[in-house]
Amino acid sequence: MAEGPLRGIRVLDLSRLVCGNMLTMLLGDFGADVVKVEEPGPGDPLRAWIADGIAAHWKVYGRNKRSIALDLRSAEGRAVLERLVARADVLVEGFRPGTLERWGLAPAMLLERHPDLVIVRISGFGQSGEYRMRAGYGSLIEGLSGFASRNGFPDRPPLLPSFPLADMVAGMMGAFATVSAVRAREAGGRGQVVDLSLLEPMVAMFGADAVLQGFKGTVRGRTGSRGSSAAPRNTFLAGDGNWLTISAPMQSMTEKLFDAMGRPELKSDPRFATNTVRLENVEALEAEITGWLSTRSAAEAWATLDAAGVTAAPILDAAGLAADPHVLSRGVFRAVKDTELGQVTMPDVVPRFSATPGAVRRPAPAVGQDSRAVLAEAGHDEAAIDALIAAKVVAES
């Protein structure tokens, strides 16, 4: 079994819901020892996200982790946490700003006692600023960041994504930040605090908008599936009722598209000759493409476009993706053993490393499944562990 390039890095995960769990899942996928510190009883609220009777989110984002159920609201529980911190390289937390300080676990104090510790603080709006104390779930961030104002169609309301996009973007950026901070420490530095908000990674995705707004006063709006910088770029309905996405952001690609459609004369049509004029005449351009597609099935059109080197692809749902020949041949999904369901299918570890790949080494744990083992590693003997469990400071599954 692959050990991964992060083997030997110990992570304490105090976060909840999606962002922190994605961050630590990525670290665990590549070999870090991730200990999930959860509330006794219900555990991480992500476990309660049930669909069709399955805690599907937890099955994925809880993989490659161990679980200890610890009451951090009690002084005894926080004392146990301090012993765990002494062995950790990374501490990830997602409480409202000020919570660690209120518990006597302020990052400055932790770094004074554990100068090599990397502390990742996840919050909606960051540890400073006007909104720092506000609750910051991803849906709010997707609205405030400008994403919703750009997502959807101009004649319809702003559109939030149907999945926790802001959390996922911040989680991926947070994993990069964590590894960077660990690398800085290994290069001769010390531990530090990583201030990870959900807001700023989403804002960073729209960097070009800031340039345009600041320099020209331009505020981009919703364009549906059309591109705002290049045409054609949209979803198109084929004659059999199935959909394709076609994107031709380069002049040469658009010319290939016109040739594949059997309409080479469109290359010299003054409405379509350059990207600039195509954007100005996008509705007429799309009408030409839709007209060509209307007499063909999506599969037939895709085969024609692919043979001509045109960048196009069918729009698939989850079932179509699972049956796609490329997805199957590349092993995009993986069947993983699960203690509750026997086996579950989930996306495999990404990205792929040629020499030190990541792997799914263990399924998502039950709440407190590893409490005894984690406490023993931190130096607690059996009597002390039994006493903590009896006092309900610690729980086990």
TrEMBL record:
Keyword Transferase among record annotations: yes
MF-aspect GO terms: transferase activity
Tree of life domain: Bacteria
InterPro entries for the chain: CoA-transferase_III (IPR050509), CoA-Trfase_fam_III (IPR003673), CoA-Trfase_III_dom3_sf (IPR044855), CoA-Trfase_III_dom_1_sf (IPR023606)
Xref: Pfam families: CoA_transf_3
Keywords annotated in UniProt: Transferase
SUPFAM superfamilies, A to Z: CoA-transferase family III (CaiB/BaiF)
Protein name: CoA transferase
